[in-house]
């Protein structure tokens, strides 16, 4: 019998054969009435006819972990892996042993609302993007028949973001940083050289720290950006994405300054006394000390803002947005304009 009663409780069971004619069965119990059991039987048969794998109903946290291990982990940097693993921990903490079939749009929206209380909007977009990709894979795999994350509202806590709080240096202040670093060069502690490089090239900090002497071409004033330094593994790793691999033109004066560091006889351009680049903590400390000495407000400034300062210098010099976008290796011009278009309106004006 497909629907039957045992010890006062109603049960239902369906049978089917796969493409190889192998017989399968799926039981379900705990129904209070025969009608409830019959409804489950009918819905499950419908799902089966639509290609849903009714014998598969994984715990959501386990499915996300398997999805991450299969589709993401082999192709991403260690720092990005840390991000995915942090999201996995959030899923485990909130959903526990909840099976994916028991999650609907209402409960999913409640989950996102809870996360958004203590995270910025930008971070929430990252979390939503990762989880939604996993959920769409579950639909494609026939694990579930609906995308319960579709068209949900993503919100964050504005107090958790630097947006609106960060006053980036204006052109005069940026030029004062350049002069300060030139005047405070120290071969044994190459922080000033590194800050100068970030300002005048637009490299990310990890990209600059990964530079070795064979990446610098003094004869044609270019540098190759082919790696990002992993401070945890203490070795070079891959870049943020495929389009980040590039060779860029740099000022001849900068290369002449960097050439001074060859006296240290290290493989890494910005190596310290032990032959490796400094951790981001020390780079950040030097950067903030520099800003303090120059009396530039720096409560919310971070080392990555030097990349934004580089864009400001290019824009001030009249370089068009398309060329800037190509230099930064953004995926498209829209990203550049959305990020830096405000420079045209109100920031980086001379005071």
CATH architecture of the largest domain: Orthogonal Bundle
CATH homologous superfamily of the largest domain, by name? Intergrase catalytic core
Number of strands: 8
Please give the CATH class of the largest domain: Mainly Alpha
Mean model confidence by pLDDT:
88
Task: Fill in the CATH topology of the largest domain.
Answer: hpI Integrase, Chain A
Q: Treating each run of at least 4 consecutive H or I residues as one helix, how many helices?
A: 13
Rg (C-alpha, Å) = 28 Å
Helix content: 40-55%
Percentage of β-strand residues: 5-15%
Q: Termini separation (Å)?
A: 84 Å
How are the strands of the biggest sheet laid out side by side?
Answer: 1-2-3
Q: Give start-end ranges of low-pLDDT stretches.
A: 345-351
Classification by helices and strands: mainly alpha
Number of self-contained structural domains: 3
- Largest beta-sheet details: 3 strands, antiparallel
Shape: elongated
Q: Topology as H/E string?
A: EEEHHHHHHHHEEEEEHHHHH
Secondary structure layout:
Blueprint lengths: L2 E4 L2 E9 L5 E9 L2 H16 L10 H13 L5 H18 L9 H12 L4 H20 L30 H13 L7 H11 L3 H5 L6 E2 L4 E4 L2 E3 L4 E3 L8 E4 L2 H8 L20 H14 L11 H12 L4 H8 L4 H8 L11
Helix pairs in contact: 2-3, 2-5, 6-7, 7-11, 12-13
Summarize it.
With 351 residues, this protein is mainly alpha-helical. Helices cover 45% and strands 11% of the residues. It contains 13 helices and 8 strands.
């Amino acid at each position: 019998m497909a629907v039957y009663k045992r010890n006062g409780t109603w049960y239902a069971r369906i049978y089917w054969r796969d493409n190889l004619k192998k017989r399968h069965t799926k039981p379900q119990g705990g129904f209070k009435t025969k009608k409830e059991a019959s409804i489950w039987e009918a819905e499950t048969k419908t799902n089966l006819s639509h290609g849903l794998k009714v014998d598969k109903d994984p715990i959501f946290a386990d499915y996300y972990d398997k999805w991450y291990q299969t589709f993401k982990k082999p192709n991403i940097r260690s720092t990005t892996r840390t991000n995915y693993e942090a999201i996995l921990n959030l899923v485990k903490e909130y959903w526990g042993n909840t099976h994916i079939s028991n999650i609907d749009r209402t409960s999913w929206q409640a989950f996102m609302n809870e996360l958004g209380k203590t995270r910025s909007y930008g971070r929430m977009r990252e979390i939503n993007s990762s989880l939604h990709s996993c959920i769409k894979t579950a639909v494609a795999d026939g694990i579930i028949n609906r995308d319960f994350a579709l068209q949900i509202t993503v919100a964050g806590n504005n107090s958790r973001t630097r947006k609106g709080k960060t006053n980036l240096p204006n052109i005069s202040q940026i030029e004062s940083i350049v002069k300060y670093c030139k005047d405070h060069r120290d071969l044994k502690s190459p922080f000033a050289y590194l800050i100068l490089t970030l300002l005048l090239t637009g490299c990310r900090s990890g990209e600059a720290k990964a530079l070795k002497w064979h990446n610098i071409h003094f004869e044609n004033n270019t540098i190759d950006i082919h790696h990002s330094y992993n401070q945890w593994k203490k070795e070079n790793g891959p870049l943020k994405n495929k389009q980040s691999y590039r060779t860029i033109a740099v000022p001849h004066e900068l290369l002449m300054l960097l050439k001074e560091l060859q006296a240290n006889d290290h493989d890494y351009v910005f190596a310290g006394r032990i032959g490796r680049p400094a951790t981001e903590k020390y780079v950040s400390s030097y950067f903030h000390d520099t800003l303090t000495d120059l009396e530039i407000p720096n409560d919310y400034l971070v080392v990555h803002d030097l990349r934004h300062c580089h864009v400001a210098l290019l824009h001030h010099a009249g370089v068009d947005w398309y060329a800037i976008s190509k230099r930064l290796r953004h995926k498209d011009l829209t990203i550049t304009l959305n990020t830096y278009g405000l420079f045209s309106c109100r920031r980086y004006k001379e005071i």
